[in-house]
Amino acid sequence: MISLLRHVTFSASSFSRSVSLLFLLAFLAGCSSTKSVPQGDYLYIGGDIKVTSPVPETNTKALEPELNAAIRPQPNTSFLGMRPKLWIYNAMGGNRERKGIANWIKTRLGEPPVLLSEAHPDRVQANMINRLYNNGYFSPTLAHTLDTTSKRKMATVHYEATVGRQYTIQQIQFPQGNDSLSMAIRETEPQSLLKVNDPYNLEKLIAERLRVNEILKEKGFFFFDESYLIYHVDSTLNNKVNIYVRIKDTAPDKALIPYRYQQVSIYTDFSLGDTLGDSEAPVQYRDYKYYPDEETFKAKTILNAVFVENGDLYSRKHHLQTVNRLMDLGTFKFAEVRFTPLDSVGLSGRLNADILLTQAKKKSIRAEVQTVQKSNGYAGPGITVSFRNRNALRGAELLLINLVGSFESQISGDSARSGLTSTEVGADAEMHVPRIISPFNIRIASSMYQPRTRFALGFRFINRKEFFQQNSFNFEYGYSWRQYATTEIQLNPVQVQYSRLMNPTPAFEKELAQRPFLARAFDQQLIIGGNYRLVYNTLGIAGRKHQLYISPGLDFSGGLWGLFYRVKNKRPADPENPNTFRGQALSQYAKFDLETRYYFNLTEKLVLATRLLGGYGLPYGNSSVLPYIKQYGIGGPNSIRAFPARSLGPGVYNPRALQEPGNEVSQSFSYFDQTGDIRLEANAEFRFPLMDPYLKGAVFADAGNIWLVNEDPTRPGGKFSGNFMSELAIGAGAGLRVDVQFFVIRVDLAYPLRDPTYPNGGRPKSGLFGTGVLNLAIGYPF
């Protein structure tokens, strides 16, 4: 007991000394803060505002943040009463000229003192009065007092504001004339942002002008501008205002009338410096003049992306929609609509519209030698030869043909898995058609972006020398379109995939015989179904503090065909007696995926990036297990980085505990075992610059696992249960990124904090650095 009391007394004494030392440092830092303050001036340490009103219902507290934002300048950066940046500035010589490293520290890490002479309270008061007027508080009174201490040479400015009753809107009157512009403005009145009895607010008045201008631009007023609207405000009433919306007398005549298209012409081979009058004779297609002839582009196809027609009123939406869709075709480098007003007698209010298109290079071929790195841990050299035709059928169709080949070895921290080789060759072709091709007449006219129909056909041959060979074929037919800049929809109603296992080695066949679940996953697979994905993405919007990416997806197979088969054969589906298509068993499953990413940009260069991945695959009918190509794996450089690729799960299953000693095939085969039907993964990464602009650093943490839907006796502990949180693998680490804009080289060193295969969520005990996993990858993990 005495020993314990001594311990407590000692700790209290230490704490007291620490607090005293902290206050001493704060005092010394405060003293040194004024070292660079000129004689007769003060260090400005901030200002505050207090708002009062004789009117009890006035919300003065709501006004204080608005007025506080007008206080200038910002004082020196402080932390717990200390000003470290100012202290560094003074320590490095203050106002004296310095060179070399001292000057770099002073200017980059330090901060000069903010002086009272820079505060200008009278100017701040004027800005506050403007803000109060803008919010309907007319005739306020403002005053300020200085709080200075000559001993410490510091000063604070205290502002005081007194406001009366806030003015509200009593009447709103739009232009009363019978001219076309006045009548068009009056027609917008029901949707007005200005409402009777609302408080007077300048920002709302500005927004109302913009709203009216947007509507007028859709009604043909091509030359109108919001600056031609003016407000007359009568504030002589008792805390009420009447607002009169008027058209400026100085507005030009052409801004007062709506415009229609007289002639729309399309130039599909325009170059900068061309003179339109020198073009060849046009093809007359419907009401359009089309240059040149249809040997280059079919007029019908191009006009699917054109939303301006002869006789139509000018519409800004249709104007921008035309430009966006033409650029979205991918066939043109530039697209512009040039307008020419016609001033001839009888043609007042008429425009000619010339659509000028500059073609991109039609065909290209490219060969790339690259390092292939896959989520399954295989890495090695690869080559891709790509052919691209941007106008394959004279309708802006994009044709892509890729020939691929690679030789890969599996790189893993597990010696049993290292050295496995895989050879892959294949070819695929895609055709992107810039319209919806379907049995129904579908035209998505409201979108600013061009919808597409996609056809894809591919073949792959994989030779994993130690195990098997595999052929796979795939075909997809579907659509993609963006309703908004941040939202894309991908719908593939037809998805056919067929894979066939060939020439398995005896050792591989033996392992499959011992693992019936995995054997069924490797059976000949026929997938007939479809998939759907929605992408919401704000990552491309610059300047946003919060950026979000959300992508849910649905993948299914065998539903409609299985229903047809059951009705035809009058019997339910059964994995032992499966439904077939031309003698081939049909895979039946439904699979849902969700990926979310959230980026919090603390500053322009400091980013907290997070990701959450979830997936659930449900085999049914014919299938008791998902096809192998549809199963989830976890771990690796783009997943949980503290564990090699596909070295986790399912659940707490530990293949090492079941392996026969000395059986190298069985040990390396565990790679195929560690897949599942359910995935849950979360990642967080803090990114920061090290040496601008190319070298960046990161610290990160990852967690997750995979599980099985159905019990597999050969993989004990793999089924999903209510204890899944205790079965999560957790890792953390740090990394470097060499970011040269067009590519990123990434090195991450990660350590496992929890391994679900160890008792009570432990981890390997092989030393401080012995359990680390070094990941070398291209690109950011998310």
UniProtKB/TrEMBL annotation:
Q: Which residues form a coiled coil?
A: none
Q: Which UniProt keywords apply?
A: Cell outer membrane, Membrane, Signal, Transmembrane
Main localization (coarse) = membrane
Subcellular localization is given as: Membrane
| Record InterPro entries | Bac_surfAg_D15 (IPR000184), D15-like (IPR039910)
Bacterial surface antigen (D15) domain: which residues? 587-760
User: Cell division as a keyword?
Assistant: no
Known PROSITE patterns for this protein? PROKAR_LIPOPROTEIN
Q: Which domain of life is it from?
A: Bacteria
Please give the name of this protein. Answer: BamA/TamA family outer membrane protein
